[in-house]
Specification:
Chain lengths: ~170, ~150
């Protein structure tokens, strides 16, 4: 029992003795107890072994092979993760971008045609073929109101030769 | 890859939807826009007017084609040293009939339009046709001048 009480009292000092930080005056008493107490002697031995390992850890740096294997493993994971989900996402992004561009062109064109009546109604917006077709079609829409109008209506622009067009251009009153 | 192809197809379809129609359709579309604006046509009246216009143009093209063919035959018959007078007379009759139908076409078209238009719209149509005809002639003249000045 006495031994047990002494063990409890000296237990904190055992730690200091193990790491070598116990004051020399106290060390004598603790060493005398340890010499007589088997359990404390075993504890001191265990503490000393631990302190040695803490001061001098076994092989603190892994070998180069360990890091090489880690790098290879990481790169395999990067490739695995990067190849599968990223490629479809990029394709969808491309598809989305193309579809957006096409839709934008369509909407812009529709909007422009609707919001610019002046342009839509300008005769110059017609190309030559459509203009000539309109020229031929208009007389069929309603009767001519004057003899002059009727005369001009029967003029078929398709039948004009280059010289006749030149003459028409030279005489704006015709 | 399939998604990219799908996107390309979508893009082509969208752009195709905006591709220019034939000249005849472009002329019809333009004329209808102008008619609707000038006569303040409702949607249903515009649709009826478009049908009248299309029928008139179909008939005009058919008659013009027949007239051109008859003109060719007339020239060929006249080019002979001794014209076949009975055959020539038949051609003259046919050509005159086509010309008469062509001349009657505006009257017929306008009569059809009168059935669906108010009197005010009929009056506007008469004036509009002549005004637009003037615009078209001037546009052709301007383009002919431009072509002439570049020579």
């Amino acid at each position: 029992m006495l031994t047990s009480l002494a063990c409890r009292r000296l237990r904190p000092a055992l730690v200091d003795l193990a790491v070598g930080s116990l004051a020399p005056g106290d060390a004598h008493e603790v060493a005398a107890h340890v010499a007589a107490c088997e359990p404390c002697r075993a504890d001191l031995a265990a503490m000393r072994g631990l302190s040695v390992e803490l001061r001098d850890p076994i092989d603190p740096l892994p070998p180069e092979d360990f890091w090489r294997r880690q790098r290879q493993s990481i790169m395999r994971r990067v490739r695995t993760v990067g190849a599968a989900p990223v490629t479809p996402v990029r394709r969808w992004k491309l598809a989305g971008a193309l579809a957006t561009v096409a839709l934008s062109v369509f909407v812009a064109r529709m909007h422009f045609e609707r919001s610019a009546p002046g342009v839509r109604h300008a005769i110059e917006s017609l190309d030559d073929d459509a203009l000539f077709h309109l020229h031929d079609l208009l007389p069929a829409l309603a009767p001519a109101t004057t003899i002059d109008d009727a005369d001009v209506d029967i003029l078929a622009v398709h039948d004009l030769g280059d010289d006749e067009i030149d003459a028409l251009a030279d005489d704006p009153d015709s | 890859m399939r998604h990219a192809l799908l996107a390309c197809l979508l893009a082509v379809a969208a752009l195709g939807a905006t591709a220019a129609p034939p000249a005849r359709e472009r002329a019809h579309d333009y004329l209808m826009r102008r008619v609707v604006a000038a006569l303040a046509l409702s949607d249903d009246k515009a649709a009826q007017m478009r049908d009248i216009l299309r029928r008139a143009d179909d008939r005009r093209q058919e008659l013009a084609s027949r007239r051109d063919a008859l003109d060719t035959k007339l020239r060929a018959a006249l080019a002979r040293s001794t014209p076949d007078e009975p055959a020539l007379g038949e051609l003259v009759g046919d050509a005159h009939g086509v010309q008469r139908e062509l001349a009657a076409l505006p009257e017929r078209t306008f009569d059809e339009a009168r059935k669906i238009l108010t009197v005010e719209q009929q009056a506007k149509l008469l004036l509009f046709r002549r005004d637009l005809q003037g615009e078209v002639r001037q546009a052709i003249r301007r383009r002919a001048t431009a072509v002439h000045s570049t020579r």
